[in-house]
Amino acid sequence: MKKYFLNKMSTGKRLAKRSIIGMRVCALSPDDGLFYPGRIHAVKTPDSPRDNQNCINLTPNTRYSVRFDPNPVFIPTRRALYEFSSSELIGDGFGNITDVKLKPGQKVYITNNGRETCGIIVEHDVTMDEVTIQIQSASPNEAPYELVKKLEEVRLSESRRSPRLADQERDTDFARLADMAGDRRRSSSHSIDVPMQFTQNGSRKRRTSYTQDEREYLLDGDDMDECNAALVLMSLSCSPNSPRQAWESAIFGTSPGDSIQSSSYSGSSSPPLSDDGNVSSSSMSSNEQKYIIKQNLHKLKINQHNVKVHIRRGQRTTSLSASDEGIVMDYGEEMARKRRTRLFKCTWKNCGSTFATDQQVKSHVRTVHLGPKNNDDEDFYFTDLEDEDEAIETDTNTTSSPPLPPTLSHSDMARPPHEDPEYQRKIVGNIRQGLLMSSGSANGQSSFAKSGPITSGSNTVIHNYAWSQTSPTSPQKHVKLSPRPSTSYAPYTLPSSTYSSSNYPVLVQQYHSLSSSSSQASITKLSHSSPPQLPPPPQQQHTPVIQTTGKCINQSGIAKMRPPGMSTPLQRRTRGENKKCRKVYGMDNRDSWCTQCKWKKACSRFGD
DNA sequence: CCTGCCGGGCG
DNA sequence: CGCCCGGCAGG
Q1: Which of A93, A211, A250, A399 could form a disulfide with A429 if both were Cys (CB 3.0 to 4.6 A apart)?
Q2: pTM
């Protein structure tokens, strides 16, 4: 049930997968014994050919180097990396949160009232599977309250955003930034899209309202996309025997229904390479392959991330670029910042030299390995590492690799990872379980939250960890949900405390979960120690009835949790079962419709 | 498909 | 604010 719940929240149909490096996990801080979020920075597998039968070079002995996200409570040494074994990590494909006992003081995230809420563990009763969590009220003037949740409902890191929003944002970015007009919805409308900037004036077409901050957030939050892309390519590189069709579909975009395909093709100024039938010939040489791969990856702009494919002596390996070279536009600064922390490693056999710039590494490859007469592109012989203090040893495995299951291929590489953490969790878990034959249990936590910088070593990113603080200047969005005199749709205010404009979409994920297990929590203690002073909380015209179950029932019968100070979340109106004006009067008597119905708003005449 | 309606643009 | 409409979710 839980799985379906999570899937429901993401409503995703496309699948996704990712690389281990960069994955968000949680691990115990050696200092205070609490879990903190971080990213897998490196994977170290001791040389052990017998265990190394898999293409991603993971064995039960693999050590995962984790860089904790900076946060005010536990401040890891900036450059410090902490090593863990897979069993010590909590995250997709690793350990499950339900396997651990949470200590008091542990910071957790729960879905409360359909909204991600941060809390502090007060008590964890393992036998009863009850976690008492103290939640800071949205209003700083109200006392914290406590919730009791099941452990499986608790997450150790922030969750992801609403898939719908993410979708919109992604489409937006694609259309505007990558100069690609198509998206999956419009692609079915038989209309030719005009780039956004040409339609914004004099058109009723809705334009996006995302701020620069939000777009940056978007990019930041999508760092797993490059992992998606990499895993796709990795599966290709690791499985020379994999079905040719799958391999082509990933690179050449020949898979039907692949949204990446449609968007990239519709926005591509040049015809797809697959118009050349020879391309798919199995006699394609290595050079041809890498050229084609490179070209097409560039076109695909796999979710705006650059992926480099390294081909070396007939063997393909992949690595990620930490920068967004695929896009120009507004992100120059961001990219520059990321680029500063990069390191370039020569991937020539037995070399491994590292360089500060790609120019240097190219020069190195050219002079030391390739020689002036070789026409090979230096690009294929180096990889850019993310950071400064440790080399990431990811692509050194040269043992022959079994093909990945076909279900792990790339038909869905377009899907951003935050859309379907559940599926990814399973996939990654399956990969790991299959390859390692170790027990990595899935868990319900989403480990792809935007909680840290894309470059974990960067010290220039400010984190939003002050979950109990309120910034009076942070933007608030007031949304009037319905003009009709409904009592359950009072204007709501996004809590300004934790979330700046740059990440507020995280909050707008609620309505998917309203009818689900998120409302199983019970309010065990409600204490208003001090009356609100400033700013005044949103007016609630009707106080929700708190039943013994702790559920607040609104008029439409939807269970809602509303802690003190918490305002009504954005929620899509349940579909009314009553007759609506359209139904009653018919299209012919549109004049008789209520205004709301005329406006395609919620019917005010036949309310539910 | 159809329907209800949210989110948002335009004047 | 009135009006309109794209698009989504759900049936």
Answers
A1: A93
A2: 0.31
